[in-house]
Amino acid sequence: MPSVLLAVCGLRPQIFTETLYALHQTGDFPRRAIILTTQQGAALSREILLGAGGRIAAFLRDYRLPSDANPLVERDILVPYCRGHPVEDITTKEESEAFQELAMRQAWEWTLDTSGRVNFSLAGGRKTMSASLALAAQCYGRQQDRLFHVLAAPHCEADVQFFYPPPGTEGSAHVILAPVPFPRLRSRLPASFLRQPCRPQDLLDHFSLSDAPDVHVYIRERHLTINARGCTLPPALFALFLWFVRHKKEFPCNGWCASCCGRACFTESSSLLADASGIARLYTMVRASDAAASSTGILDLNQENFMAYKAKLNRRLHRDLGALAAYAAILSLGRRPGVRYGLSAIQSSIHIH
Question: Per UniProt, what is one Pfam family of this protein (predicted)?
């Protein structure tokens, strides 16, 4: 099975050739390799590993592998960007988050293809870098993918000139792969997380919530919060959202609305449009000034612009709340002509202020 090596690397590029050696010894030499590192690490990797005089070329010669078997090219030495600049070193929370997003994006990309295997190597870089790649492997890893560390004898680690055991010295050098068992969460991810790489915070929000979180709605501020993440809505969108909130609070709700189609708290659009004047009153109450008023749009709601407002509202919630938007979005249940609409949050979790 062809494999790809996705490896973290810091200021010791030796770990990369040690990894290539260990994979070669197990018969799993990668067809392509990607290094995730910092700007400093990238400079060292290019200088020491690449080119005809680099350590990868030397390894290929020593182990009689063809020169075109080199799995690493310069464009695959990747550095995260923070505030528009490549990360020199990971010393801040923002730089760590940038590296996490890079690891997530690469793990997502290389596991899209159902064939082949991804080998995730944690042997290199700062501990935060290894932790980020381990999280990405847990999120997107498939059954055939592997996560491992590379172990070398202490005297090899202490030798700055050691890059891999020369042929004939393998026994004394003792460089091996140490597999790391890991849970594979891919099958439990929402479809949206598989269509594009997810942010670590969205992943944690998705898995850390065993019960529905509270949804706090602040009318004067046109604002809602879920688990300390907030979203402020324009008057028209907030008026529509508040209508669904109040409609929901009028009915008992004991579980996830998405699994109980037919509940009274979900309503057909005809019922909502019949109360268009009620939505208009909510809009008049929450709009910031007279200048915000309009004789069209939310004040003249119809089926077409209701669907447009609903889509805009859900997009805005997802933009600001990430995965938590699932607890405040307007859901659609059933099929035409009997589609019903309602708030995804359960009644007991909604708090109006």
Answer: Cas_NE0113
DSSP string over 117-153? EEEEE--SS-HHHHHHHHHHHHHH--TT-EEEEEEE-
The CATH code that applies to domain 3-198 is 3.40.50.10770
Name the nearest CA neighbour of 257 among 336, 352, 334. Answer: 334
Give bridge partners of residue 146 from the DSSP assignment.
Answer: 119
d(CA 200, CA 101): 7
**Furthest C-alpha separation in the chain:** 85
Structure tokens at 351: 């708090």
pLDDT tens, 36-94?
Answer: 999 999 999 999 999 999 999 999 999 999 989 999 999 999 999 999 999 999 999 99
Q: What are the residue ranges spanned by the domains of the chain?
A: 3-198, 209-352
pLDDT tens digits along 218-229: 999 999 999 989
